[in-house]
## 1
Amino acid sequence: MVTAALLATNFWEPAARALEGWQPSYTYVFDFIVLWGLFAVFMIVLRVATDFLSPVKVRFIKLAERIYPYVHPDLEHTKAGNLTTYLELTTAKGARYERRLTTHQGHPDDPLSDQEMETKFRRCASLRLSEAKLQAACEAIWSLDKLNTLEPLLTAIAG
């Protein structure tokens, strides 16, 4: 599409000037018609060339079209706030897997372990902090109950 637009803008002015010499009172009309006409022609030519030159037709699996959401019978009459989720998966070979989750990981009923919590913190904070600052921040966080002030933590994460 970008190539067709570039080609159309390159050939538009000479073609519009040629038509303008034939009918000078329609300058703006010719500009509009020639630009869009050239764009359409180049789009068609490039599309046909691409189809001809590309012997392999790539097919992408549209995963979203293969997902069928529905209300599980166990959940039809549940109240708001119920976090229960069912996942049923059938593979291309016919294997079937089912899983029922009543809460998500990190929920008070299924809390993260200390190691999982630190891993999550490091993954998020590593986008902004160096490894040395991450280590200092982790040490400060794990000793928050022993600190008199938040100065060590603030120093660790200061940019």
Note: Residues 27-53 form the longest helix (27 residues).
## 2
Amino acid sequence: MDSPARCVALALVATLGWACSSVESTNHLKEDSLTNESSPPTNASTPTSGKLTSKTATTPPTPSAGCSKKDPIGGLRDRHLDVHGTERTYDLEIPSPYDATRSYPLVFAFHGGGGSSASARATFDFSSVARDSAIFVYPAAMDGNWDLDSPTDQNADIAFFDALVDSLSASHCVDTQRVFATGFSNGAYFANQLGCRRGDVLRAIAPHGGTFRHLTRLRGSPMIELNLLRQVFNLMVGGSR
């Protein structure tokens, strides 16, 4: 695995423990997170010398409805999900052993253009870095590329993401305040868009090899303009092998 992708993996593992884990209730906005690169907030919680801030350290997890369900079998699974009549596929990696009383972070990893769930797993290799610290989701694009152009209410990939969050939160014990997204190349562009379109769901994004270039396509929509104001912690990683 190339070093930038490993940096993403390591950074997200660190983020699982501290980054932006406290939430302000007003309008469901994450006031303590970092916003987009052009206007960082003044009240972002920043760790000092590797220590947690008191605000972050004292914020309890928010368990999903799935925390009352029977323990699923841990390990890697090839899964299918019906989204508005279309069968979508994804790989799901569940901690083993799995503890139904523990609220796990939910981490999405989106493959690059022409890739697959398997290529995303190989790129980020979370299983060897994060061990059993989170539930990892590797969705597959229908044609190998994520939709960066369709409006939110007509975007099948946004609907797929929404359905996965709802389904997994209902079937597994998820900390709904610690949902993360990363991606490579085309998947990084999509992770960036999710940070805008679903800033009320995601705690942080960590795009690898993809910038905010495609976000210009979102401007002009009142909903997207509002979402662009939502504050989502963003770690951008670039570089080569």
Note: The beta strands are 75-83, 86-94, 104-110, 135-139, 174-184, 204-208, 233-234.
## 3
Amino acid sequence: MSVPRTIEASQHPHGPLTRDRRPAQASEVDDTPPRTRAWNSVVAVLFLVVAMWGGYTAIGLPPVVIVGGSGVVAFVIWQRSYLRRPLDPSVILPLFLLTVAALDVHMAEEYLARFGPAMSRLFNISWTERSFLLIFAFVGPCLYALTAIGLYYRIPLAGFLAWFIFIGVMRVVASGIFGYGYGAFGMGVRNTER
């Protein structure tokens, strides 16, 4: 009977795997080839256009401004950083997962405060609780999981989605700090009928 061998933390492989299935070292990661950059850029722009179009047709103008604003800023930062040379997953992945955890807490707060219906009243748009949950409780987490896998394997498009989420969360934090929450916008979230 043999005793299972434990792996020390220093022996555990980190980062994505190379073609021969061993972890890639920082010195082995090259700049993203121009053709790969171009294709990833096209897919990122298509993602933004589809997300803004979907938001506009289903809800109205506010999602276009929110998604479009965060997306354009994220696209510019991504073009100048991660797209050229993807970061080591040990650097970006923990930060991304912490951001997603904070975003999930924020989404729970918005759900409990009935943010979707309050936005509907404020902007005279059709944003139901059901569509809010569909987007932020189901579609969002799928994108977050796929982005985390992409960051682990240093897929350039995953860097765009990560920056998109980072910028979106920074916008939420800034509106909470400088606008003192939603009440500053006259939504009356706390006084909504339940």
Note: The helical segments are 34-58, 61-80, 89-112, 115-123, 129-152, 156-178.
